[in-house]
Amino acid sequence: MFGSLFEEDGEERCSPATSGGRVVKGGEEPPPPRGRVNLSGIKNQGGTCYLNSLLQTLLFTPEFREELFSLGPEELGYLEDKDKPEAKVRVIPLELQRLFARLLLVDQQTASTADLTDSFGWNSSEESRQHDVQELNRILFSALEHSLVDTSGSTFIHRLYHGTTVNSIICKECGNISQRQEDFLDLTVCVRGVCGLEGALWDMFVEEELFEGSNLYRCGQCDQLVTAAKSAKLRKLPPFLTVSLLRFNFDFAKCERFKETGHYTFPLTINLRPFCEQADCEDSEYCYELFSVIIHKGGCYGGHYHVYIKDIDHLGRWEPPEEDPKPKIQRKMEVRVREPDLEKDDPLSVLSSIVAQEASRSVLLDQLGQRLMDKIGSSWSKKYRKQYGPIGKFIQNHSDVFMLVNNGTQVALRAQTPSPVTQAPSPANHTPCLDHTNLDKPHPEPEMVSEPEFGCWFDLNDSTVTCIRESDIKKMFQGRESAYMLFYRKTKLTRPTEAQNNPGYKVPPHLLQMAKEENRQLQQRREDLEASSNSVVLHLHLAPRYRLENGALHSISIEQDDVVTLNFDRRKTVGDLRMTIYQMQDLWEGDMALTVARSLPAGLHLYNTLTNDDVSLYSVGILTGSHLFVWNGREVCGATVRTGAEWEPVLLTVMRPSLSGGEEEWAGEGLLKEWRGFAGRVTLREVKEALGETEESLLCQEKRGGEGEGGGHSGWMVFPPEDMQRTLKELALKDGDAVLVLEPHTCHNSAFSVSGDMVTVATPSDCRWLQVEFRPERGREGEEEEERRKAKVPASGNMLLYEVKQRAIEELELQEQLTGVACCLRQVDAAGKLLPPVCEELNVRDAGVRLMTSLSLCPGTAPKSTQLFLYFTVATVPSSGWEGEIIIEQSCTVKQCLKAMLELAGLEGDGWHLRRMDWCEEVGDALMDQDASLSELKFSHGETLVITEGQLPPKGFLKLIVWLYVEPMTDSGVSMETEVNGKDEGSTEGQRMEVIAADGRAMAELRIVGQVEISEDATLEDLKSQVQTLPPLQCVCVPTPAFLRLWQLEGRRLFRILRGQQLTLRKLKLSSGMEVCVQQLLREEDLGPKEVMLHVQIGVPGQRGYYPPEELVWDASRDPSPRSLHCALAATYGLSPDSLLVAKHLPLKQTWEAISNWSQQVSKRKKKKKAESLLGAPFHLKDGDIIGVKNLLIDNNRDFSTQQDEQRLRGEEQCRKGGQSARGEAEVERVKGPEKNGPAKARKPEVALSINVGVFR
User: Fold this and answer.
1) Region Disordered: which residues (predicted)?
2) How many CB atoms lie within 10 A of CB 843?
3) Separation between Cα atoms, residue 466 and residue 464, nearest integer Å
């Protein structure tokens, strides 16, 4: 009922799950250990902040936690047996036990609730939809009570949280009292019109409501309408009192929801004696203290939950918040050392002071700029950038003072370098004061920080846990961020001494062992990561073993391995690497230059040279697997080598006509192919000269994106004269593109047809004849062989097949024999089997008939263009080999098709259904939608249907709509496109979509190819295999399913890539009706949970355009920061990270969002800096995003927008203005108000929250 009420939007939305809320074991970086507070947070799965807040409250309710831990496996069962049908395993309490044990004992910063939500029966949509925490509280308690039936813990929820109220009506005439008792797990109190909690309780349980005047009460004893008084009292108080505040209301005048944000107080301790029916007990029975406050931040249509919790058992380490002054006790322990005066004009001194003053002796790289501003009151750009350059470069240039740690995300001081703060003070400028006993211990830290007088409070905000003061609770009395649920406990509830500072108190032994084993594995993974994270594998290419050929470097010797592999510490400098290579190559003489290289299809190409010997390999973007070319920096084997991305070579396929004599000989041999490499900055004229062609020769490019002329022809486009001065990069020519060279005398050949700037080349398949073989009805074997006759019929791609049939009848002289007999043409496969009849209303090309092949003239009827030819068989007699044939309209439904097939097969009854025969000739998927037409189900000619006895299969199967990712500009895309063409001629616009690049060009086209039905327990690899059985994809050959990429579509857009070959579809959160898209790859792919596939487009220098996009798989598992992405792009293009300008394209807004190399997030309220992750707000990088890259070394244009972006923005603005002028005045008045500017956001349908529980009675 609160499905969209608490939907997250704006700045208050929950932090997104970076990997679907799953913790994938193995293969990824281990989670970080707990912070200084020694408490673990909970990972947000996308919209589960309300669940996290409630779970933390229950965890820090020691009595609840210990009651749950008291239930052993003999009562709850074992999780390993949950899939056994006879076992009754109470999964929800078991998963809750494990989660609590991990939160208490496992040394990790965050724990995952994925297993717990799986036990709830939630899918991915439920985990990303936010609900009301009060509703969850009631439903979770109900689920636990149902799960614990017939166990010793069946009543512990009732004992801890159950209370009762009594409603009384007193007759003023006779004094009769009518009472009704009600149970409660939480009290819901009003907020509107009340100043605080105590006032709301007074109105509920002290004030009386009088029935008088026209509102009289009928007394059962007086049997008449009388004056009466109604009141309510608390009869039974639970040990734990939960109070829900009605913050959300409905304005009936405006017909909209709103949130009460006014001032509403609640006490830290409360005495409920005035509100109880019996008030004669001791005060301890009525006194409660506050220990948890669940807070809602945002409005009525979106927001975020977090919780303030009092640590009853002192499990965490409380420290004063940073913004608050330190307590007096701690101030006495400190050494009063006056900070020396800083030389603000010296950035080295200032930065060293900032780093040295940190307790951890390090500062996050993206927070250093803000710390500098706090220190001197000015930013780096204003004070130092003009003289010293960017702050990152400054740190790299002073590697003798600073070093990068934690994968380059933090700046620290080298141990031997004294800083202005840590260096020993001289008597001239410094005098120590007080506490002289600790002077010999540098920077002492007190072992225990004084705890607040009224207990330790923490703010648990999903993955983040911070210390707060008790006074911070008062800030939650009002505003958009205010208290929503209050949790009180009786003051008489005391905790044993052994429970203090003991997270393992009363935790079962098997859970202690589980936590111990997980901690051991985490420690081992962290040690392995530390050992391997700083080691990179470099591939060295030595110049004496290479030569320059066709614009690229090639190995001189084929047999000899020219690559030297070197394991090196990336924290060392370029100079250290150079010295190591000198020691490896004893015979090297002269200068040595190290240049980043990449192996391209055209050969090895060089990019930027490492010139600064004092910087580390990490700082210059050298990652594991990088290639370095070792040379003198000028030439290789006497030839000058061009370096840089602009000279990147392109491998072209040069095609020429065969030089064989005679037209027939030429047609048989076709075009000759030659592969040549050229530098990317050479012009097309220089390419022609390099090929040795004359000025009159024509250069042609294969027509892209079109169907061509088909029927044995291929279309080429002549490069216009103005293109001869353009470079290969400007013409967007890529590796593998074909270029046709035509000399003037070849244009007169009949194999070519020149029309304007188009050239049509006839290929060997267009030999303009078809062989037709007559196959009469089967009689005696001897007659059949004697009567088979053949004839070669002249044909072309435009000839109708009906004409081909008539000519064949005339050539075979069968006019009299076939008078009044229907006959048709059928193709024959390699095994001699007859294929379905071809449609005689189509021409040879459209029917998919290749010239120079054979057709059979057989008795039978040819299907029309609106009909299908299908085979069918009966599953009950598969061994008989009987197979029927039927011609049926494409518009017929599955039910009508089944009826027609049953009549031909002589079967009766309704207990039959149809299944498709897959490509393995095995019975495949059932046709579930009986009312769908054959055209909607994408049936094609020659498919086989199996009439199967019985009803349709049971539920538990997923029906997924499959799209095909077609790349017309690539060889793989063409092959897949060819299989689809001719089979979806009736496809509508809604069955095709385009994937648009940033410059408006179509990167690919998406087409619907059919549907698959598969079990939820099948793996992703099984789904890929079944997708290949779809008729349009049966001819698509891939070695393994890893050569296919499956996308999940959402809103008709590519949303995410499905990962994990062995994960089940249930684990991947796929549900029936979802759409997936299959893409063929040229290499195997197995993406990790935090590897993001991006479309990268590098800008054309001096122009507002981009080169065609390239795929980049960015590994964000170790470091999702902007710096990491810059380094990955730099390694891809062989450039320095600081020379790149990067931005993300926003297709819906037609704008670009810059990704700064030194960007940081600053909280508006608390002014705290946070390390920025590109996987989170505001960028939310995901699979398929378009990333624009500018090379500042050769391109000074920092504007990423293109002309297409501006045109679309102008078009949208005109449509917006036209829509506004067409509205009526009443609509304009209705949308007035500060909160109604802009279009209204569409709300998701409201879905009730539920938790699935098994039956244990």
Assistant:
1) 1-41, 1203-1245
2) 19
3) 7
DSSP-assigned states of every residue in 1025-1073: HHHTTSGGGTT---SSGGGEEEEEEETTEEEEE---TT-BTTTTT--TT
DSSP string over 392-447: HHHHHHTTTTEEEETTTTEEEE-TT---TTTSPPPTTT---BS-GGGTTSSS---S
Q: Is the dihedral of CA 616, 622, 623, 626 positive or negative?
A: negative
Residues acting as catalytic residues: 49, 304
1014: phi then psi, degrees, rounded to nearest 5: -150, 150
Share of the chain above pLDDT 70, in %: 79
Residue 825 has pLDDT above 60, yes or no: yes
3-state secondary structure 964-976: EEECCCCHHHHHH
Distance CA 234, CA 881 (A): 81
3-state secondary structure of 609: strand
> What tens digit of pLDDT does each residue of 773-822 get?
888 765 444 444 445 688 888 887 778 888 888 888 888 888 888 888 88
Distance CA 145, CA 772 (A): 78
Local confidence band at 747 (pLDDT 50, 70, 90 cut-offs): low
Distance CA 1008, CA 1026 (A): 15
> Hey, what are 210's tokens?
């009088």
Measured in degrees and rounded to the nearest 5, phi and psi for residue 206 equal: -120, -50
Cβ 487 vs Cβ 290: under 8 Å: yes
Q: Please, are residues 430 and 338 in contact by the beta-carbon 8 Å criterion?
A: yes
478-512: b or e for each residue (b if 16 or more CB lie within 10 Å)? eeebbbbbbbbbbbeeeeeeebeeebebebeeebe
Q: What is the pTM of this model?
A: 0.47
DSSP conformation class of 1019: B
Q: 1094 pairs with which residues across the strands?
A: 1112
Spatial contact of 68 and 97, defined as CB atoms under 8 Å apart: yes
Cβ count within 10 A of residue 387: 9
C-alpha–C-alpha distance, residues 434 and 417, integer Å: 27
Report d(CA 673, CA 567) in Å as an integer. 41
Supply the pLDDT for residue 511: 94
On the CB side of 738, CA atoms within 13 Å amount to 16
**Kind of pairing between the strands at 546-549 and 256-259:** unpaired
CA torsion 942→947→948→954, rounded to 10°?
A: 70
Average pLDDT, the chain: 79
Q: What is the dihedral of CA 520, 521, 524, 530, to 10 degrees?
A: -120
